Amino acid sequence: MVEAVETMDGWYSLHDFRTVDWTSWKLATEEERKEAIESLQQLLAAWEKVEEENNGSHVLYNIVGQKADLMFMFLRPTTNELSEIETELNKSKMGEFLIPAHSYVSVVELSKYRPYKVEKPEELPEIAKRLKPILPKWEHVCFYPMDRRRQGEENWYTLEKDVRGQLLYEHSKTGRKYAGKVSQIITGSIGLDDWEWGVTLFAHDPLQFKKIVYEMRFDEVSSKYGEFGEFFVGNHLPNDAIAAYLNI
Ligand code: 76R
């Protein structure tokens, strides 16, 4: 029988996409808009405190194109906290002007394809840091979900573990060429959301998303076994740029 791989799982993740209801935003009074921006700043300040205390992490990006306007990505130890955050945002004054556009639930994942010398590698500081990462606040983000193919001869789930491990090792060699240019967080979503993995990439230059994804298309693990969902790409929205972004 084909052996599954053991995974190391870290913080739960919520990608929360919102569209600004620009019509009601424009109809709102100056005071209401101010109150709404302040409510968002308050939430961000509270989430920053969580991040400083290493109990989670978050980022906010402005999505390019019509799929959404904003993407929040939250990492927390439990799905309850993610749900609370989502509700908190909905209840806030800003929430009155945010229409849910899309969401994705997953958990930060590393697999144990390569052998580790210790029994509990998830406790090694460098691994623990990758399972519970402080999200980079790089200028650009790219998010998309993906599956491993299960069709005819191209079935990832009938490949032996060492073969899958070898293919992923080849894949990682392509990935490493982008060190410093692209930072990736792989989140597992089997049993949690519609696709099997979420891919979140951060870059200083959005062209690097096209370069890495294109180059990886030729790695066997993607050319034979990769199926991809919808792509979202965005620009970092730092706290001090939110008011200007919403200013009308
Ligand atoms: O353990 C590690 O993180 C190192 C080896 C590695 C694994 C096991 C690795 C390295 N990846 C692994 C697993 Mn990856 N990765 C993707 C995508 O668009 C595409 O074609 C694929 C989307 C990108 C861009 C990317 C980048 N990787 C995985 C898995 C889980 C598969 C499974 O278990 O079946 C998926 C879905 C996936 C997808 N990967 C790297 C990168 C980069 C940049 C690296 C090098 C990171 C580094 O070494 O610093």
CATH class wording: Alpha Beta
Q: Please give the radius of gyration in angstroms.
A: 19 Å
What small ligands are held by the chains? ligand 76R
Major β-sheet strand ordering? 1-3-2-11-5-9-8-4
Structural class: alpha+beta
Helix percent reads 25-40%
Sum up the overall morphology in one term.
globular
Question: CATH superfamily membership, which one?
Answer: Apc35880, domain 1
Count of beta strands: 11
Poorly predicted runs of 5 or more residues: none
> Total domains, how many?
1
Summarize the main sheet: 8 strands, antiparallel, barrel
First-last Cα distance: 61 Å
The helix/strand series, from N terminus to C terminus, equals EHHEEHEHEEEHEEHHEEH
Content of β-strand = 25-35%
Q: Taking all residues together, what is the mean pLDDT?
A: 98
CATH architecture field: 2-Layer Sandwich
The helix tally amounts to 8
CATH topology: the name is Alpha-Beta Plaits
Keywords: Coiled coil, Heme, Heme biosynthesis, Iron, Metal-binding, Oxidoreductase, Peroxidase
Pfam families: Chlor_dismutase (PF06778)
Enzyme class: oxidoreductase
Function: Involved in coproporphyrin-dependent heme b biosynthesis. Catalyzes the decarboxylation of Fe-coproporphyrin III (coproheme) to heme b (protoheme IX), the last step of the pathway. The reaction occurs in a stepwise manner with a three-propionate intermediate.
